[in-house]
Design goal:
Elements (H helix, E strand, L loop, with lengths): L4 H14 L12 H13 L7 H8 L2 E3 L6 E12 L5 E11 L3 E3 L1 H12 L2 E2 L1 H16 L3 E10 H4 L10 E8 H4 L1 H9 L1
Parallel strand pairs: 2-5
Antiparallel strand pairs: 1-4, 2-3, 3-6, 6-7
Length: 187
């Protein structure tokens, strides 16, 4: 995917002018360009990755006989709500039970970032991460739990600061084997 940065700058400029702001103000002169840079370089950078990129990311693996659960927890992430374009910020717990192959732990966080850096809803984010790990690593089971605070809930609308949303996606034996499921959820 390619971004049309010029169209983005025009849109942000129109938005700010729509708010009645003076774009000649010293603090706003470069704001449209800065906003576009932030979205292209970080907030929407996940759109630059294809399925092939994710497959390559997760193909850096090691053949290994280890067959116990592997869990990485407290992985911070930031995403943007596709309904209001405001951030939701949280942590992830990602786990899998290997099936003859293990992957470097940083790869799990990288997959999370690819999908978090797209306009999202948290439920979909959990599914996308779990399904990618399941598809490209082919473990016996995979689980993803996300816990996040949503600015659309904490700073607008009902204004409930401190509220958290928790979502999960469990696949394979992580979903069907009760003891494996409990082990993951209790980590």
């Amino acid at each position: 995917m390619k971004f049309d940065k010029n169209k983005m700058v025009i849109g942000i400029t129109a938005f700010l002018e729509g708010l009645g702001l003076d774009l000649k103000d010293q603090h706003l002169i470069r704001t449209p360009t800065r906003v576009v840079e932030a979205w292209v370089e970080t907030f929407a950078s996940g759109y630059l990755y294809t399925d092939a990129d994710i497959e390559k990311m997760l193909s850096v693996e090691f053949k290994d006989s280890y067959d116990e659960m592997i869990v990485v927890k407290d992985i911070p992430f930031t995403s943007h709500c596709s309904h209001h374009l405001v951030p939701f910020i949280g942590t992830a717990k990602i786990g899998y039970v290997p099936n003859g192959r293990i992957v470097g732990l940083s790869k799990l966080a990288r997959v999370l970032d690819v999908f978090a850096h797209r306009l999202q809803v948290q439920e979909q984010l959990a599914e996308q991460v779990a399904e990618s790990i399941n598809k490209y690593l082919a473990p016996k089971g995979v689980g993803v739990v996300l816990q996040a605070s949503h600015m659309c809930m904490t700073s607008r609308g009902v204004k409930k600061p401190g509220s958290q949303m928790v979502t999960s996606c469990l696949l394979g034996e992580m979903r069907t084997d009760r003891s494996m499921r409990e082990e993951f959820l209790n980590f």
